[in-house]
Amino acid sequence: MTKKNLYVVTILMALTIMPIFYAHGETQTLTNVGFIQGNIWYSEEPFFDGDHIRIYTVLHNNSGQDITGTIVFYDNETPINSNNFSIANERVQDQWTDWQAVYGSHKISASITNAKMILPGGEEVTIVLQNSQTGVSDRFVDIDTDEDVIGNSADADDDNDGMPDTKEVSIGTNPLKQDTDEDGINDAKDTDPLIPEKPAASQTPQTTETSPEQANSILPFATHAIALIANKIETARKALLAQIERRIEHLKAEMKEQNIKKESVQPTTKKNGAEARLGTKAMLKDSGIFQYLNLYIHYALLFILKYKILFYFVLALLFYYLTRLFYRKVFRSY
Fold first, then answer.
1. Is the preceding omega at residue 46 within 30 degrees of 0, hence cis?
2. Secondary-structure class of domain 29-141 per CATH
3. Residue 182 contacts by C-beta under 8 Å, 6 or more apart in sequence?
4. DSSP class of residue 266?
5. DSSP bridge pairs for 108
6. Which of 28, 29, 63, 152 is the least buried, fewest Cβ under 10 Å from its Cβ?
7. For 90-143, how does the pLDDT look when each residue is reduced to its tens digit (9 = 90+)?
8. pLDDT score at 267
C-alpha cells in the first residue's frame, strides 16, 4: 500500500470513528425525531363527563438510528399514564393512553423522557430531543344529561322533557329531571309539575263543600317551597358529587407521581437522634399517611353523596342535632 493510500484510509477511519466518540462524550440534541407538533386527538368526538376515551399522538424518527424512551400523557400537568416506546429509523408510530373524561377544563399534552439512541452493536446513548413536547389540546368536558350528544352548556333542554331550561328555573322545576314531582307526568305536560297528581282511582267524592278559606290555603305555597328547596339540595348534591370525584382522581394522580419519584430517589444516610426527632413530622408526610387519610375521607364523602337515601339520612341527622343544639342554647337560657 502506498503512503498516499495509507493517508486516505486513515482519514476515512477517523471520520467513521469520531461520531461514536462524540456520542459517548457529549449528549446530542436531535431535531429530526420526536412528536409531530400539535398532534393530539381522541378516539371519539364529542365526548362528555364519564366517557371512557383514548388519547392519541404520533412519533416520527428520521435520526438514522433506532430511538427508545418513555412518553408521559398529562391532564392539566398531572400525569395520566406513561408508556415505554421503541421506534425504528424512518418510521412513524402511534402512541395512546386510556382516560375517563371528567367535567371541567382540561389541557391534554404529552412529553418524551429518558430518550436514548441505539448505536450499532446495541449500545444506548442518552440524547435530547428538540421535539419532546406535543402541543396542548385545550378541552372543556361538559355533562350530557339527556344523552342527546349536546352538552348541557349548549343544550336548551338538558333533560329533554320539552320544557326549556330557562322556564324550568323560573318556575322551580328541575331542569335535569323530566318528571320533577315524580308523579309519572312529564313536566311539560304536567298542570302542576311541582305537586304530584293523585291517580283518578284514589280520588273519593267529597260530601262537604270547600270553603273559600280552605281553597286559599297556604298548603300549595308550602308544597311549592318545599319542592323548590328539595330541587336546590339535589342540584347541590350532584355538583358536590362531581367535585369530589374530580378531587379523588387528582389525589390518585398526585400519589402515583410521588411514588414514581420516590422509587427514583436513593436511600439517604442515617441521621442522628436530634435530626430524626425534628424530621418526624416531615417523614410522616413524605410517607403518604396524610395523603391516604385524605383520600379515605374523600371516598367516604363520595359514598355518602352517591346514595340519595344515605345522603338525606345524614342531612336529616345533622339537622336534628343542630336543631337540638339550638333549642338547648336558646330556650334553656330563659
1. yes
2. mainly beta
3. 196
4. P
5. 75, 137
6. 29
7. 899 989 999 999 999 999 999 999 999 999 888 889 988 888 888 899 999 999
8. 54
Among residues 61, 60, 62, 81, the alpha carbon closest in space to that of 72 is found at 81
> In this structure, which amino acid lies at residue 94?
D
**Owner of C-alpha cell 425504528:** 88
Half-sphere exposure of 329 (CA within 13 A, CB side): 6
Sort residue 2 into left (φ over 0), alpha (ψ -120 to 50) or beta: beta
Tell me if 49 sits within 8 A of 242, measured CB to CB.
yes
Across the strands, what pairs with 126?
116
The pLDDT confidence band at residue 69, using thresholds 50, 70 and 90, is very high
Q: Single out the residue of 83, 112, 77 nearest to residue 96, CA to CA.
A: 83
Give SS3 for 158: coil
Q: Give the whole-angstrom CA distance, residue 294 versus residue 180.
A: 36
**pTM (2 decimals)?**
0.50
Q: How many residues does the chain have?
A: 334
Per domain, the residue ranges of the chain are 29-141
pLDDT tens string 229-248:
888 888 888 888 888 888 88
What is the C-alpha separation between 259 and 250, in angstroms, rounded?
A: 14
Partner residues linked to 75 by β-bridges:
78, 108
Helix (H), strand (E) at residue 127:
strand 124-131
CA distance to 48, 187, 208, 258, per residue, from 219 (Å)? 41, 21, 19, 58
Per the CB < 8 A criterion, the answer to whether 99 and 51 are in contact is: no
